[in-house]
Amino acid sequence: MRFHTRKWVKPEDMNPNSTLFGGRLLEWIDEESALYTAIQLENGKIVTKYISEINFMSSAKQGDIVEIGIEVVSFGKSSITLKCEARNKMTRETILTVDNIVMVNLGKNGKPEPHGKTKVEFVKDRLES
Fold first, then answer.
1. Is the sign of the CA dihedral 89, 93, 96, 101 positive or negative?
2. Residue 125 falls inside a structural domain
3. DSSP-derived secondary structure letter, 110
4. Domain-embedded: residue 47
5. Which DSSP helix (H) or strand (E) runs through 27?
6. Which residues on adjacent β-strands are paired with residue 48?
7. Which of 3, 82, 105, 106 is at 20 to 30 A from 43, Cα to Cα?
């Protein structure tokens, strides 16, 4: 799994228990999934269709650095399915995992549209073509 994003846990990210608010972490994951998908599908018009069960395994506290890792599970006709892990950068302890995040490629009309992708591509490889 590649860890693309790091977030510093700040006071505004805390819940009443003085740990990272789960909703904030899910917001970060949804944003990272959207960015990852936009780059993979070469289209900024994508939406989140589904997020499977979320397994919280540990917490983070103020000052921790959280890494978000994304990996492709599969490519559909107009979708891409990802999995995610968020972990503490310093301790490498897993904070949460999500087995399936389904992102959908949209056309100009805002409806699902085939993307034609079948494998992970890296931007550096596109530039060399």
1. positive
2. no
3. S
4. yes
5. helix 22-41
6. 103
7. 3
State the pLDDT at residue 128.
63
Radius of gyration for the alpha carbons in the chain, expressed in angstroms and rounded: 16
Domain that holds residue 37: 2-116
Q: Is 123 within the bounds of a domain?
A: no
Examine residue 69 and state whether it is found in any structural domain, yes or no: yes
CATH number for position 64 = 3.10.129.10
User: Domain total for the chain?
Assistant: 1
Q: Which residues, 6 or more positions from 129, have their beta carbon under 8 angstroms from its beta carbon? A: none
The values of phi and psi at residue 86, to 5°, are -115, 135
Tens-digit pLDDT profile for residues 11-22:
999 999 999 999
CB 32 within 8 A of CB 4: yes
User: Is residue 67 within 8 Å of 87, Cβ to Cβ?
Assistant: yes
| Least confident piece of the model among 23-27, 103-107, 123-127 | 123-127
29-79 confidence digits (pLDDT tens): 999 999 999 999 999 999 999 999 999 999 999 999 999 999 999 999 999
